[in-house]
Amino acid sequence: MGKVICTGLGPGDPELMSVRSDRLIRGARHVAYFRKAGRKGQARQIVEGMLREDVTEHAMEYPVTTEIAVSDPEYNRILSAFYADWADRLEALAAEADVVVLCEGDPFFYGSFMHLHSRLQTRVEVEIVPGITGMSGCWTATHLPITWGDDVMTVAMATLPEAELARRLKDTDAAVVMKIGRNLGKLKRALETAGRLDDAWLVERGTMPAQSVQKLCDFNGEAPYFAICLLHGKGRRP
Prior knowledge:
Radius of gyration: 19 Å
Oligomer: single chain
Shape: globular
Structural class: alpha/beta
Number of strands: 10
Order of helices and strands: EHEHEHEHEHEHEHEEE
Strand order of the largest sheet: 3-2-4-1-5
Helix content: 25-40%
């Protein structure tokens, strides 16, 4: 009888993975990971060269990503069925041996595995190995502290309505904005409304080989999926 072990891989650089995650991944007979259909998957790329020769890989391919609006009931129906199916599969695998599920960043911080975790409760033993979050890797790449003293930090999604995003960015000291992608234009407008566009940084692929760090006001391209916007706090200092 095995268990399902979700290992946090950290922000992208394999050397920032925990010793425990490294050991579990290298010894795993079964490794599962999320990916978009037709892609290798970011989690899988991070562990390239680490897997044992006789490993069995289980690619959990999302049936939908951006093809349907998140607000569409069909989006939730399709993904719910997907997570339920993979919960069944992982339970069956764990009946014979441990199965390691790869997760970028930290599994319990906006990680897809949370949807499996809630479905696997009481059905199989589940272990979570925490990891360094992607946002930590990104703010470290700016070489500036994200918070000082009594600063309050907000983590927000660029998918929020523009007015709501602007309000939250105005009312906080430091901020991390995730899920930018096609919401880049809206994010820039929200930052401008909040009077903070000139303070914002954009970090693409933090800690990875193609890392890019620049002021958001100087960026005119299309933001990739692995991009985070940062506002550094300026609070109490000695």
